[in-house]
Design brief:
Elements (H helix, E strand, L loop, with lengths): L2 H16 L2 H15 L1 H27 L4 H14 L9 H18 L1 H7 L15 E3 L8 E3 L5 E10 L4 E6 L3 H4 E3 L9 E6 L7 H6 L2 E8 L5 E9 L2 E6 L1 E3 L2 E3 L1 H25 L6 H24 L4 H46 L5
Parallel strand pairs: 2-10
Antiparallel strand pairs: 1-11, 3-4, 3-7, 5-6, 6-9, 7-8, 8-9
Helix pairs in contact: 1-2, 1-5, 2-11, 3-4, 3-11, 9-10, 9-11
Length: 360
Amino acid sequence: MDFTTLTIELLKALAHVVGNYGFAIIVLTIIVRLAMWPLNVSQQRSMRTMQNLQPKIKALQDRYKNNPQVMQQKLMEFYKEHKFNPMGGCLPLLIQLPIFILLYSALMSPMFIQIAGDTSFGFLSRLDTTLRATAGRSYDGQFGVSANDTFTLGKVAKVYLPNEVLENVKVKNPARAIEIQGGFKPGESVDFKIDLDHLDLKFAQLNEIEKAEIAVTDMNNKEVENITFTKEGSVLAASVPTIVAERSFHWDVFLLIALFAITMFASQKIMMATQKTKNSDPAQEAIQKSMGTFMPIMIIGTFIIIPIPAGVLLYLVTSNVIQILQTVIVNKQIDTEMSNTSNIASDSDIAGAKKIEPKE
């Protein structure tokens, strides 16, 4: 079982419990964020430690600026002395990237589109739809297509032999197994063919195939049709009618992108507010402020250009909300700890001062 299938199976199990795939994505996000909570807390503590050590680090850099080799050595000694890893804050980001890719792959896969792609959630009409996509009705016997659409097969086929029917026959390399004969034009029938070698069967069984039922997905609009292929020589062939489908703009996905922008901007603001201290470098503050403003804009622009499914955006928005809550909670804990440490130090200083107070 590959990771995409594993992710979908996990979503199926969660959906069975909570009753909806949209809620399943939210629950999965919460599970992931809770599992990563210790790492994210470590990241925030690392950032706060970096804040407190920044003046001393800058002093070392200024002192040895003419000798980079010695400067690096002194910095490493300084980090070791204070038990600080400057790369410690990067680990949570590195872990989250594969999770994002897995969820993106799962929600864009034909398997998810078949079982839950048309699931609605709140104001979202479909969890698999992107900002700009052609609309197509699945399982109506025809494809709604636009020029240059591409197709892929499902992972399994139902194969008919003279004396038996084989369920769940594995399709090898589904994305490349299906071919279009002679191209196609929207509004005209599209002719598909599949080489028999793409079916995971014995040689004797391949010769006996009469027909096969396989789900075919239009990768541009996520429409799925169950197609019956008949054997023609060494291939399976089918002709499917098509209609012209115009690309449309999905305002529900745009609203989700806007929510992502708002939550990301809020998260950046809170992070910058907690990092601001009297010892902060003005130049560094200006850079962070610029990044906090332009980074969300760049990511939003990317999401408008690259087709991100609504379900993945739902994951990102939920993740941002949890990030905001975590930042507030953890920073309050750190502030309390620092305040208690400061009070203990002050009491100790007062006691020490009393001991050395001169007698009159």
